[in-house]
From TrEMBL:
Protein's UniProt name: HTH arsR-type domain-containing protein
InterPro entries recorded: HTH_ArsR_DNA-bd_dom (IPR001845), WH-like_DNA-bd_sf (IPR036388), WH_DNA-bd_sf (IPR036390)
Coiled coil: none
SMART domains in UniProt: HTH_ARSR
Alphabetical list of Pfam families matching this protein: HTH_20
GO molecular function, one term: DNA-binding transcription factor activity
Domain spans labelled HTH arsR-type: 18-113
């Protein structure tokens, strides 16, 4: 099988971005990256807890779209490799009324659906740590005001979290976690004036 040109990992064209609007395809790519960028279908299926037969359709779409390479079959079955050669796939945003922006929004919505499923599944485990320095289950939402310095620090911390989670599996690093976050500017709304009480009615 001829080896195609390596993908730079940056997804911008709406057709490429739309491939990841499907949560299952996001999970396949995430799992493949967590397994080092190359793995047999059986290993991907085992990690996802899904039958391998149910993944082939999505794997073929990802390969046809240029995100994965299907490798020659060997002793452990069909294998796939990320076209980016180990670099994580990243979305390039083109804000505004663009096809890219609409596709990216659908991918983000898919990410949040996966996060909700992961959280709900973990919450059903009575042994999961929810307190202390090794807490493994956490959901939070914070909204507040920041300046340029705080925004730069937030970005540094988010990049650092990504670096920690991208480390390869090792004997003392064998627990799989998922982290999903959204950082978005919010337009501040002007305070609404209280309505004047109607005549003849008591204001409580």
């Amino acid at each position: 099988m001829a080896r195609r040109e390596r993908h730079d990992g940056k997804l911008e064209h709406p057709r490429e971005v739309e491939l990841l609007a499907s949560p299952i395809r996001q999970e396949i790519v995430d799992t493949l990256e967590a397994l080092g960028g190359e793995a047999p279908v059986a290993a991907i299926a085992a990690q996802l807890g899904r039958p391998a037969d149910g993944l082939y359709y999505h794997l073929r779409l990802l390969a046809a779209g240029g995100l994965l390479d299907e490798l020659p079959t060997d002793g452990d079955g069909r294998r796939y490799r990320t076209r980016s050669g180990g670099a994580r796939l990243r979305l390039r945003y083109r804000p505004g009324a663009t096809a890219n922006a609409r596709a990216v929004a659908r991918v983000a919505a898919g990410m949040l659906r996966i996060a909700g499923r992961d959280f709900g599944a973990a919450l059903g485990d009575p042994a999961v740590a929810v307190e202390g320095p090794r807490r493994a289950l956490w959901a939070s939402r914070t909204k507040g005001w920041v300046g340029a310095a705080e925004l730069e620090e937030i970005n540094r911390l988010l990049l650092r979290l990504g670096e920690l989670l991208r480390r390869p599996r090792a004997p003392r690093r064998d627990r799989l976690l998922s982290l999903t976050w959204v950082l978005a500017p919010v337009a501040a709304r002007p305070a609404r004036r209280a309505a004047a009480p109607r005549r003849g009615r008591r204001s409580i």
